[in-house]
Amino acid sequence: MKNLIFILVLSIFSCTKNSSTSSTAGAAAGGEKVLNLVVTADVKGFDPNQASDLYAGNEVARVYEGLLQFHYLKRPYQLEPNLADGMPTVGDGGLSYTFKLKKGVMFHDDACFPNGKGRELTAEDIAYSIKRMGDPKEQSKGWWLIEGKIAGLDDWRKNGNSDYTKEIAGIKVIDKHTIKFTLSRPFPQFLYAFAMPFTYAVAKEAVTKYGKEFVNHPVGTGPFITGKYNQGNQIVYTKNPNYRTVTYPSEGESGDSAKGFLKAAGQKLPLVDKIVVKIMKEEQTRWLNFLKGNLDAMGIPTEQFTNVMVPGKGLSDKFKKMGVMERKSVGLDVTYTAFNHEHELFKNNVKLRQAMSLAQDRDMVNKKFYQGISIPAQSITPPNIAGHIDGFVGQYQNLNIVKAKELLSEAGFPEGKGLPEITLHYTYNTKSRQIAEVFQQNMSKIGVKIKPVGVTWPELMKVVNTKQSMMFSMAWGADYPDAENFLQLLYSKNSAPGANGSNYSDPEYDAMFVKASMMEDSPERTALYEKMYKYVSEKVPWILGFHRVGYGLSHGWFKNYKFTEFNHGVAKYYDIDNAAKGELKTKL
Amino acid sequence: MLQYSIRRLLYIIPVLLGVCFIVFFLFNVVATDPAAQQLGKHATASSIVELRKELGLDRSYFVQYLDIVKSAFTFDFGRSWSSHQKISDILMNKAGASLSLTIPAFIISMFLGISLSLFVAFYRGRLIDYATMLICIAMMSISYLVYIIVFQYVLAYEWGLFEVSGYESGFPAFIPYVALPILISVVTSLGPDIRFFRTIMLDEIYQDYVRTARAKGLSEKVILFKHVLRNALVPIITYIIIQLPFLILGALLLESFFDIPGLGGELLRALNSSDFPVIKAFTVLTAIAYMVFSLVTDIFYALADPRIKLQ
Fold first, then answer.
1. In terms of Cα–Cα distance, which of B49, B95, B55 is closest to B251?
2. Contact with chain A for residue B238, Cβ under 8 A
3. Residue B69 sits in the same domain as residue B96
4. Is residue B240 part of a domain?
5. What is the spatial distance between Cα A113 and Cα A359, in angstroms, rounded to a whole number?
6. Rounded to 5 degrees, what angle do the CA atoms B223, B226, B228 make?
7. Do B169 and A291 touch (CB under 8 A)?
8. Are residues B37 and B151 in the same domain?
């Protein structure tokens, strides 16, 4: 027994030596600016190709960079060059995009390079990174983004031999700092791809040297550097000493100046010396650490909401005294309960759909499950992007039981008579179950019987993709700030197993969609998007849910913390005021 | 005894094949498609087919089963589907953190449990015995989660006696971070431990040999420590050794709340993200550990009690 214990104890010490990096995160020794952030789920790793979730994407974007990025302050969201030297020239009637690269951008020093010194980023690296997204061996989670768009890339992928030396018509390196992409069809949203982590530039040397372990060896060109990732409970980044000169923006949207977002204008980025990202999955753990000042910012825990926010007034006095700041976030998303339009019951039965939509009490759902702050969707496109109509009130998106009953009887089911029980699939968790049950109760008020069935996400995907579901609940978050990303969810050619899981098929809608998807950003396109917005509201292809709104909190010492839906790479703008931190921490 | 041990070790083989079959059946046959889960909202029919090929799910069931058997006997479980790290590396990296929490907690609670149970057995039937039992039952009636939430809030946040959460690797850096989780773990296991050990002690105390010892005029202390404790060792050993393999699995909730990067959290992550290779590794390794440790228990029986012969 003694020996056994001895061996086990020994293993503790031998194992832990090389485990997670130690840090003294809270202490800001010698004026070092340390940013303490939190993530609520595991970070899968640092391969841009695999950065399909928010958590991995954010971490990847601290180390790696793309050709483009979103302007940090301006709204509506606007692309600007990052690794690219200026925006690309568009030619051949919207089919070709030529990028010039910034000169002198260096990869981080790493053992994968000769003598361990990072080399200059070239157009070859961009070509390699994009080809890598198409390499079937890599199984990039971002392939959908460029699938069927870059000339020749799909054939190269089908060939399957991952020969990177082979020329691809659509990816042409003109010289060391110039690369030209040619598309197989016009796709005005193509540029957004270059602001997404999937396309960020990686070095072939690193991919080759680390092989399968590349995911844990981040080697980018970005403002921060971190060592080997070992899936510990925190990730520590230090400022890249060789980062090129990039400065804080001097323009923003109106009101930014008053909020102090322009105070750092012109300063060299990044502004902090070190970032400690802590992985904390439990809400109480995050909350207590935030209250202790160990975290600079976090979302408001659900059960603390009424304690922190006074309805209609904002932060409660207790938190104001602590110097805490609130930050509202309106998500570029929409939740919905979709009909399967290939099911006989809903196919072409617009009145039934309208009736059910009118019977759903979304104000109640909002109050019960979203603290009453989310925005009931009137149509598909969320606020803050072109194509959303502010103040628009849908005819069928607001509770009206009398009208719902009328429409139901016009649809041939008076009081729900003759209507079979409708199965509703949803991803199982407590909140979703409760929402589904509320939906069931609301529908029963007009005589529609709903049977909620909770399933896992893969099971839900399966019933949706094989068109087996009658109705299902889902949400869509924007990949890029363009209404097209939402409107494509109802395009008939995207039917299951594509993104249009509801299999909505409407020639009139399709015609508008095809027309809009070929158009460059313009007032005409926005007008068309708005027309489609109204059309969707009228035709009720789904029972619309919400554009979700959330509140975040930050301490008074955390500067330049502006909400953005696309927060890849924004940590370089963040700043910590150590003097204020010293003072405010005494008030916690 | 050597013969017995070898035979028992050989028994592990058919059992392990069975475990592999159950794992295979649950994850490769019954479970829903992990490819769809991994691809998320942008999954298409062709991308699912491609990913299934990459994950080796397109091969025949027999080959997939052999794969699991092979990994169970070579301890090479391949790589995690989500992090792409070698599973052996993950286990090595995270076992330390788990053990730094579970081993001290286990030793302390066993030591306290056995000492306190001897103490109450000594005073059996008296007020102190009843009071201790009442407290034990009260402590057992409170949910584990409540201990965690309240202790973390009061002891760490309000009173500042401990770190709220976190972990640093290496001795002694980890001590401040595991102190509170260890305390919670000890407090929650004391109730059942004391009751269990007390019952064993009392069983022995009413045996004939104890009466004989008393008749010989031995002191109550000598009877308790020299005779009763020795004879009570067999069930105590079983209780202790059978728990050992689970120490490596870590403490799921404690690791999660106190942000300790251990194996409990890893298992939870693997379950949530359908990371089958990791779940398979955990299942197979736990089964092996369980079998090995139950053999160890038998050997200890023979050592603790000369009447037991291993045949």
1. B95
2. no
3. no
4. yes
5. 63
6. 60
7. no
8. no
**Torsion angle, CA of B105/B110/B113/B118, rounded to 10 degrees?**
-160
Q: Scanning every residue of chain A, which has its alpha carbon at the shortest distance from the alpha carbon of B160? A: A292
Chain A residue nearest residue B159, CA to CA: A292
B21/B125 same-domain check: no
Same structural domain, B36 and B162: no
Query: In this predicted complex, what is the ipTM?
Result: 0.87
Task: Residue B246: give its domain's CATH number.
Answer: 1.10.3720.10
> What's the Cα-to-Cα distance from B12 to each of A131, A197, B3, B242, B310, rounded to whole Å?
48, 48, 15, 16, 17
DSSP-derived 3-state class of residue A413: coil
User: Which chain A residues are Cβ-neighbours of B260 within 8 angstroms?
Assistant: 233
Residue that is written with structure tokens 């939509």 in the block: A357
Residues B143, B194: one domain?
Answer: yes
| HSE-CB of A417 using CA atoms within 13 angstroms | 5
Residue B103 belongs to domain spanning: 92-274
> In a structure prediction context, what are the per-residue pLDDT tens digits for chain B, which is 311 residues long?
788 888 888 888 999 999 999 999 988 888 777 777 777 666 677 777 888 887 888 888 999 999 899 988 888 999 988 888 889 988 888 999 999 999 999 999 999 999 999 999 989 899 999 999 999 999 999 999 999 999 999 999 999 999 999 998 888 889 999 999 999 999 999 999 999 999 999 999 889 999 999 999 999 888 888 888 888 888 888 888 888 888 877 788 899 899 999 998 888 888 877 788 999 999 999 898 888 888 888 888 888 777 877 76
User: Of B48, B74, B100, which residue is a domain's last?
Assistant: B74
- Minimum-distance CB partner of A42 among B44, B168, B269: B269
Residues 41-80 of A with CB under 8 A from B: 42, 44-45, 47, 50, 52-53
Contact flag A144-B260 (C-beta cutoff 8 Å): no
* CB–CB contact A281 B265 (8 Å): yes
Rama region for A475: left / alpha / beta (φ>0; ψ in -120 to 50; rest) = beta
Which residues make beta-bridge pairs with A558? A576
> A545 is written with which tokens?
């849910």
Evaluate whether A474 touches A501 at the Cβ level (below 8 Å).
Answer: yes
Smallest CA–CA distance, residue A15 to chain B, in Å, is: 5
Please indicate, yes or no, whether residues B119 and B178 belong to a single structural domain of this protein: yes
Instruction: Compute how many other C-beta atoms are within 10 angstroms of the C-beta atom of residue B225.
Output: 12
For B39, residues 6+ apart whose C-beta sits below 8 A from its C-beta are A141, B47, B48, B51
Identify the residue whose tokens are 């090389």.
Answer: A18
Task: Find, in chain B, the residue whose alpha carbon is nearest to that of A25.
Answer: B166
Number of domains in chain B: 2
Residues B125 and B51 in one domain: no
pTM, to two decimals? 0.86
A439 in Cβ contact with A337 (< 8 Å): yes
Q: Would residue B83 count as lying in a domain? A: no
